[in-house]
Amino acid sequence: MLLLIQYTLIFASVLILVALGGMFSERSGIINLGLEGIMVFGAMAGAMVMVLLPDNTPKIVVIVLTMLAAAAAGMITSLFIAVAAINFKADQTLVGTAVNMIGVAGATVIVKAFNTNRSNGTDFSPKLDYVKGQEAFSFHIGDLRLNWFIVVAIVLLVVATVYFYKTKSALRLRACGEHPQAADSVGINVYKMRYLGVLISGFLGGLGGIIYISAATSTWHFDYGVAGAGFLALAVMIFGQWKPERIAWSAVIFALFKALSSVYMGIDFLKALPISGTVYNMLPYIVSLIVLAFTSKNSRAPKAEGIPYDKGAR
């Protein structure tokens, strides 16, 4: 049971951060379907930093540098979405899909080149081992093994909630996602606010990626994927109605099912059931489909999301 709690908290922290990122992007008017790709590049950058850091590096330095690398990679990736969707008015669904496809392919090529360079041409593996980095992130509360990134996720959730409800900047950002022409008429720079929303999504998505590989996997290596966590975060965002507090508890529900798929073999009564392990692995995605099927009709998405801003339109 402790293992189930541990993995639920870890997966919830991933889903909260990434879903919050998607929320800020869509609240500004930009649909960000590229969260999966952003997570992949964030995870890759963080794993590279962990591999390159010396073994005697202090834990706090490992955590900070890894976070900075993951967040920076996520923001750079999100810039491609921002430029294409805001400046070139490209179809936002296609842009996000392209980023997801590039994420897996790009990470494979970059990691292979990274390994080949470090091994003088003897290692062509698309995986990065980061055992020493993963050990730096762990701490224990009794028998419960947790990760410092869970604390970071809780802090950022509080910060995001305060920012979302209590600041003028967030009010302007939300106005750009509801009625950008009206926002522009009172002097709000719609392009600037939409860039801000997408960059926040990149920042949080990159952090979500490094949390996923540093705490939610048992293989202790990055192999160019995050197993659909970005798509689950989109479901959490929609189920959470684009609101931070609802996203938080929605993430815990989805994380519970995701955790079950990882630890069911360690729970006696689940192991005794005549259910294939494949069913448990499919469970979080099946639940997301069912939930969205019943709640999507009542969802209140920002009115202007997905619509390129035309300054001349009224």
TrEMBL record:
Transmembrane annotation, as ranges: 6-24, 31-54, 60-86, 93-114, 146-165, 195-215, 221-240, 247-267, 273-294
A GO CC annotation given for this chain: plasma membrane
Membrane association type: Multi-pass membrane protein
Keyword annotations: Cell membrane, Membrane, Transmembrane, Transmembrane helix
One annotated GO molecular function: transmembrane transporter activity
Location relative to the cell: Cell membrane
Name of the protein described by the UniProt record: ABC transporter permease
InterPro entries: ABC_BtuC-like, ABC_transp_permease
Chief location bin: membrane
